[in-house]
């Protein structure tokens, strides 16, 4: 693991870069700063992500180090590079389409549904926070680290991939939080990509993480209890 100071510096730079890119992705396509839904989403998302990052910079720098390895370039397998590339594209579209929707007024979302969207974004990020607290080996890429064991407590006792569950909950409500029904058309594509990724992840963990097959027998559902 890299020195803690190096990890912290990288994490802060990454967080700042994310904030700037997200801001431009919201407001350039919208063609205006008069986009209160965009401001609300940006503030809520960045506050939550900053809190999560700050907490684990202080409590678990190993987790932060593993999360810094993310995206298509960081993946080791070609198939996962492709999957992550599509996931990145679809995430951008989840932001871009609602921003264009705001600009051209293609659809209208009532204020109360925008609020519901913001609440569920916080809930999704809260689930991810709980997952990170439960499992220090939650990496940004598919890998097994030295000394890693199967985590089956907390949210892992309910579904096998609780981080993806929280992430998908957040992604589903991003378009509504941004005041767009049209943006929801991207979510099925994101769901498909994540399903492909987690199936490949399960194959990898089955081969490389002792006890994972027994865990799969105990916890039947991957993302949503009693559904899948």
Name of the CATH class: Mainly Alpha
Secondary structure tally, helices = 8
Largest sheet: none
Helicity level: 55-70%
What share of the residues does DSSP label as strand, in percent?
under 5%
What number of domains? 1
Nearest-angstrom radius of gyration?
18 Å
Order of helices and strands: HHHHHHHH
CATH architecture: Up-down Bundle
In short:
68% of the residues lie in helices and 0% in strands. The chain is an all-alpha fold.
Describe the structure.
The chain has one domain (4-218): Four Helix Bundle (Hemerythrin (Met), subunit A). It has 8 helices and no strands. The protein has helices spanning 4-30, 36-59, 61-68, 78-104, 111-134, 162-177, 187-208, 212-218. Helix 4 (78-104) packs antiparallel against helix 7.
Key descriptive features of the protein:
Four Helix Bundle (Hemerythrin (Met), subunit A)
Topology:
Blueprint: H1 4-30, H2 36-59, H3 61-68, H4 78-104, H5 111-134, H6 162-177, H7 187-208, H8 212-218
Helix pairs in contact: 1-2, 1-3, 1-4, 2-5, 4-6, 4-7, 5-6, 6-7
């Amino acid at each position: 693991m890299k020195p803690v100071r190096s990890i912290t510096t990288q994490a802060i730079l990454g967080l700042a870069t994310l904030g700037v890119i997200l801001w431009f992705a919201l407001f350039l396509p919208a063609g205006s700063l008069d986009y209160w839904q965009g401001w609300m989403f940006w503030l809520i998302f960045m506050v939550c992500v900053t809190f999560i990052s700050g907490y684990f910079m202080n409590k678990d720098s190993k987790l932060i180090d593993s999360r810094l390895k993310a995206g298509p370039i960081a993946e080791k397998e070609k198939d996962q590079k492709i999957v992550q590339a599509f996931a990145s594209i679809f995430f951008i579209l989840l932001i871009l389409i609602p921003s264009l929707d705001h600009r051209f007024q293609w659809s209208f979302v009532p204020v109360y549904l925008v609020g519901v969207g913001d609440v569920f974004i916080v809930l999704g990020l809260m689930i991810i926070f709980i997952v990170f607290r439960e499992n220090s080996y939650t990496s940004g890429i598919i890998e097994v680290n030295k000394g890693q064991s199967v985590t089956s407590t907390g949210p892992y006792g309910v579904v096998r991939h609780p981080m993806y569950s929280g992430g998908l909950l957040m992604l589903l409500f991003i378009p509504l939080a941004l005041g767009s029904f049209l943006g929801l058309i991207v979510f099925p594509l994101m769901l498909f990509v994540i399903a492909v990724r987690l199936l490949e992840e399960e194959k990898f963990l089955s081969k490389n993480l002792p006890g994972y097959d027994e865990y799969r027998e105990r916890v039947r559902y991957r993302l949503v209890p009693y559904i899948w």
